[in-house]
Amino acid sequence: MLREKYERVPSGCAVSGIMDRSGRRFSGNDIIQSIALMRERSNGLGGGFAAYGIYPEYKDHYAFHMFYDDEQAREISERFLNEHFNIAEAGPIPTKKVSSIKNEPIIWRYFALPKEEKLTSSGLLPDEFVAQCVINLNKKIDGAFVVSSGKNMGAFKGVGYPEDIGEFYRLYEYEGYTWTAHGRFPTNTPGWWGGAHPFTLLDLSVVHNGELSSYGTNRRYLNEFGYECTMQTDTEVVAYLLDLFTRRQGMPLEMACKIMAPPMWDEIERMPDDDKALYTALRTVYGKALMNGPFSIIVAFSNGMVALNDRIKLRPLVAAEKGDVLYVSSEESAIIEICPQPDKIWAPRAGEPVIGMLEEVKA
Amino acid sequence: MRQLPALCHFLPYTCSQVTNPSIDPLREPMELKTYLGRKPDKLEFDENGRLVTKLTPQLVLNVPIMFSAMSFGSISLNACESLARAATQLGIYYNTGEGGLHSSLYRYGKNTIAQVASGRFGVHADYLNAAAALEIKIGQGAKPGIGGHLPGEKVRAEVSATRMIPEGSDAISPAPHHDIYSIEDLRQLIYALKEATNYAKPVIVKIAAVHNVAAIASGIARAGADIIAIDGFRGGTGAAPLRIRDNVGIPIEMAIAAVDTRLKEEGIRHQVSVVAAGSMRNSADIIKAIALGADAVYIATSALIAIGCHMCQKCNTGKCNWGIATQDPQLVKRLNPNIGARRLVNLITAWEHEIKEMLGGMGINSIESLRGNREMLRGVGLTQKEMDILGIKAAGE
Amino acid sequence: MKRVYALEEYCVGCRLCEINCTVAHSESKDIIWAFKVEEPRPLPGILVEEVKPISFGLQCRHCDDAECIKSCITGAMHRDERGAVVCNADKCVGCWTCIMACPYGTIKRNEDKGNVVSKCDLCPDLPQPACVSNCPNEALIYVDRG
User: Fold this and answer.
1) I want to staple A205 with a disulfide (CB 3.0 to 4.6 A). Which of A50, B9, C124, C145 is the partner?
2) DSSP label at residue A151
3) Residue of B156, B321, B324, B336 to mutate, testing the C interface (most C Cβ within 10 Å of its Cβ)
């Protein structure tokens, strides 16, 4: 059987996300508790977390979380990293033995900055340089996998139930202002740690419940802009699309969401002229970036979080607010579990993004 | 080659089960609207989030199907009118072919694609400006590499006036455009047409599916065409020379896949639209062509069959029993355009329903998510090489 | 009032209108029976005029100011409640004055049926005249052109 990296595996899932818009940091306990409640939605074959604000001491360094199948892969990868980066600190990510978590890879973390001369000779901005390096590492070094590569953030994932994964990585010891989590129900048993969510690119992390019927189209579209979809997962497509629109094309986040889950043509027909022209142009130009099929996704990045549903709400998504804290989840119960009395709780409409931004960014 | 079974027969498409719900088009919206034309790499917005980019002119199709080029002369005025009326009613386009536009058909201009072919018959400023889009025909799937020949007996008063040639004279289109001997000449013609119409209409370039179609298509895209139409070897006409019809060209499925892949690799696929033509016999063929990378399709033979063609293959004699490929007034009146248009509308509407059903089955509710979505297809009974070219996996993989 | 109009540009001269008129006015309403068995066979109220390539089906125009009604000596020719010009066979004596008066030549002698005239009656028992329903090329239309 092909390992997941080489074959696309459909899966059902649970997703959850918490963000404190004031930037206050809190431990990983809440998110573990929230995702644990939705145990029924996953089957122990994948779980993971993304956390933001967890490395204040290295907030300007790119934090690489790596999986290695063996020592050889680690050596080759470290040679690659040393060649391109100045590494400030390197070491295994602290874990705790949990009986249900088996076959873990070698898990390391590096805090690094790109070498000046490499940046100059490649002519790339640091972000783009790191993105290229990540793509190369994943593609070219067999047995190595970049779990996350953003600044002041990290992804922690593996094969197992998410609450066990949380314990395994000792997430209760970290503090972050945004946490997202994922429990997975894949339809076969690849048992590959890299296949779990969240999927990340730089500081962007995606947890995703659903399956993209438009995967083939989206992927070919991304190919044209130089994105190689090496992972064969739908989630990768979501991350790359967002990266393309928001980082490379500099589009507002709302607009990017409207490309991925646009209004129906008959709805556009009824809009005022300005909007009609805008949405017609969006759909005309970015038709191949439309994400079709059922999905609810939570995307987190350094200064915010966005949750988005497909155009006809084929997957569940609930959002809630209490003070500065924004909650999004597959199920209302998973929010109530950690926040029994939210100020406001609602089910976002199909295709309507729920966006939370850090206060400091807004101002 | 004609005896080969169509490639479409070896390409089953998929549908959703369990992990992904299929969508019921009777209950949920199902979108087939298609915009053909040149697209920018990205849209620009001002600081208030308002759109700054102006889109170049686009063709808007309610269904991704158009009626392919059939000239007035090769087919009767009543047949042309049937196509024009049906296109208007359906919100799609029909193509004049190389026959010019009869004065009575100018009122359907909004749904007309005006063709400019090597003979330049009936081409003048009013003709170009009356249409919604212009098409430069380089080659035709039924007879790639050769020109056209409308026998003098078909050139009666109306045809003569429309084509601007003497009555009774043979209308011979040369094999090449004698002002296009290379790609830069094509560029000149594309821009000459754009100048003539004030850049208000998209320009289509139509080529036959031949061995190096991918490279040619890429050249055409770079020469400034907004839409590339590719005509496969099964394209029909009863008037093509037998040996050419049966031996030149490649299957449209291969051609579309090769062109889509090449344009993708060059990073320009999203800028141009690709139209597949030749041998679209039913809605499943259309679904497969779109999944292989086409934006829309051209149909001609199926349209003619809908209005009464019985494929008796004697178009060249001018004695079409059904009033389609003839100019004999006694025969032409056998085709009532009211009936013809209605039947065409029925055909396209039925195909539209079928396409929606198939899309829904795949768990897709908008046709753009099928474009180039080769995950939706698998190959049965094809060689690995063929599947590689088509960019698909084998069934069961 | 709705009348039958011929679209000469689409009439191919197949004469199915004549045949179906006969069938519609037969006892059996069956095409084989009407032509092979029934005696006398009804006359068609429509006649295809043809000089190729021009042809069209012509039947009574049901004129507003009908010469046939004015000329009828017994009052057999009259306008019914639909506005159609029809002949009451019980009153008709076969004087043929209407035939001479009709400017279109659409009234015929029916010598098989007691010397009365035969003409289009716009098929009072059918939703629309049989000739219109059965024209294969829609070259006959039944519309109100005022």
Assistant:
1) A50
2) B
3) B336
